[in-house]
Amino acid sequence: MLVVTTEGIAGHRIEKVLGQTFGVVVRSRGLGGNITASFRSLFGGEIKEYTEMIEDARKAAIDRMIQNAHAMGANAIVMMRFDSGEIGQTMSEIVAYGTAVIAEKE
């Protein structure tokens, strides 16, 4: 599955637009991770526990978006983007979304 952030795909033409596709993931650090992250935040710098959580959530959101596009019959996704937000103070929501298309090589 080709996934691009651009409107088109170099060397391909869009034969058919199938519609929006997305993948959603909501993650929360466990109590231990939150305590460790709280201590790290006292000293400044990167909080690796949260960085890893968000990286994993983005990968999972992309995988779900691709599964959704496959179910629609797509072989590519164009205009892929991420959106994120917080639910409460302990959960992060990550959404990967784009347009599912059928693309053919020129």
UniProtKB/TrEMBL annotation:
Pfam families: YbjQ_1
Gene3D superfamilies recorded: Hypothetical protein apc22750. Chain B
InterPro entries: UPF0145_dom_sf, UPF0145_YbjQ-like
Family: Belongs to the UPF0145 family.
PANTHER family, sorted: UPF0145 PROTEIN SCO3412, UPF0145 PROTEIN YBJQ
Protein name: UPF0145 protein A8990_13041
Species this protein is from: Paenibacillus taihuensis
